[in-house]
Design goal:
Elements lengths: L15 E4 L4 E10 L2 E7 L1 H14 L3 H11 L5 H16 L2 H6 L11 H10 L4
Antiparallel strand pairs: 1-2, 2-3
Length: about 120
């Protein structure tokens, strides 16, 4: 497998490119998924988040991408990686986690619009 390093390079070192007339900057990187190499284009913040996940889980970028690829449904690898990153950190951002570090939930206090939006968005089983 290519790139068995446990760290991720600086995203800006891999040639950021402008899209949408200079709006968003995406970084293109090659990753190994199984026996093939493919390119993934993500925002620098997403590459940073993937790097954090790799450090926390003591794994490589390629291993994470391979796991995401194996579990994804009918979406592109890039989209599946974005969902994975959001899901990973959403699972880490529980009410208990916030309370443990002294944070309160965002929707409490002076932010009633956030509270109502969160209550509407919560799935009902």
């Amino acid at each position: 497998m290519i790139g068995t390093s446990r760290t991720i390079d600086n995203p800006s070192a891999n040639g950021a490119s402008q899209v949408n007339g200079g709006g968003s900057t995406l970084v293109n990187r090659n990753v190994s998924v199984g026996q093939r190499r493919t390119s993934v284009r993500l925002e620098p913040a997403m590459w940073d988040a993937l790097g954090e996940i790799c450090r926390r889980e003591n794994t490589t970028l390629h291993e994470v991408c391979e796991m995401v690829d194996a579990r994804r449904r009918a979406s592109s690898l890039t989209a599946a990686i974005r969902v994975f990153v959001m899901t990973y950190f959403r699972a880490a951002a529980t009410e208990d986690g916030h309370a443990g570090v002294g944070h309160g939930p965002l929707y409490k206090g002076t932010r009633p619009r956030l509270r109502r939006a969160r209550e509407r968005a919560e799935p009902r089983f």
